[in-house]
Amino acid sequence: MEIVYVSHWRFPSEKTMSPLIMKTCEGFARSGHEVELLVPWRRNPAFHGVDPFSHHGIEKNFRIRRIPVIDLLGVFPGSSSFYILLASFNVSAFFSVAFRRRALLYFHDARDAALISFLRRPMTLEIHDFYKSRIEALNRFVFRRISGFIVTNRIKVEALKNDFSIPVFRMLHQPNAVDIDMFSIDISQREAREKLSLPLDKKIVLYTGHLFGWKGVQTLFDAHQFLNEDEILYFVGGTDEDIEKFKIKSEKLKVKNIVIAGRRPHAEIPMWLRAADILVLPNTSKDEASRVETSPVKLFEYMASGRPIIASDLPSIRNIVDDSMVFFAEADIPSSFARAIHTAFADPKETDQRVERGSREVQKYSWEKRNAAILEFVRSLGFPTKP
């Protein structure tokens, strides 16, 4: 089967969605399908000359095809430039697939399907960020033409069914996934710390990922005041702008137990997770994307790493784990995160048991199982899935 994955994202990118999309393409191609990732030709100065396959650790078994767009974001950053890019990408993508009648068209953003949906071709849409937009009519127009939906948590399944009357048989509940082998590395904590030049005599509490507000990182930052002298918060990841803001704030407050490590190569993250004593997922409850919509890839990576996890007690997180696998803290309350951290340190036996249960649970969320489930779902909709 020919599969064309259509996405306006940058490749490579510092964003989680880029490797996630490429992993999906890799999995489809490994199953013997002819896969093309159709993307805009965008300015990408931070990754100039960088091969997306090498950067994200993806097997080069599918094609990335870049098509022309109007990209003004580097000159005039803002929503207007973004929507110009999106509109021009819709036009280019439409003409790129118009005569490929046998291809399954695959999307992760309804906006990318706005114009292509007029073709009335077999189309599958992954629902990651919330499906509602400022233009409600656009969603309703596109959704009527989508053959099947891959929905990353049950909350959104119910919302699609109730708000858009999408029948259950057209939806597959399929959370995000993780490369389990990549994150369950065979190296001791001491070795990992030595390789990363991290202190051997401190308790390291680690957050990896972006420093966006809805990620709840400010709550974790503020938790530093409740930690003991031998406990250090490490932040790994973020855009250059956000990293600089956090560094300035840390220096201004003269914080001694926070380290802003900056953005690190994706291939290095498993080493950081192994080096840590505790991993934190501090999502905020003040944003719907965080509270109910996300299927956090970070959580799966944490679980696969075999380290204790402190997580915000939110519906989106409980959709994946429960109290037997992680320690929950009250979202947006720094002292609650500090208490959960100290609880995990104080009871090593209970902590190890939760880690073990989480390690078993994450086996359900491998990329191999995710892609196989999606292809089986596509077959159930009447599309051929044999190579």
From TrEMBL:
UniProt keyword list: Membrane, Transmembrane, Transmembrane helix
Q: Which residues cross the membrane?
A: 81-99
Q: Which residues form the Glycosyl transferase family domain?
A: 189-357
Question: What InterPro entries is this protein classified in?
Answer: Glyco_trans_1 (IPR001296)
Q: Which residues form a coiled coil?
A: none
Q: What GO MF annotations does this protein's record show?
A: glycosyltransferase activity
State what protein this is by name.
Answer: Glycosyl transferase family 1 domain-containing protein
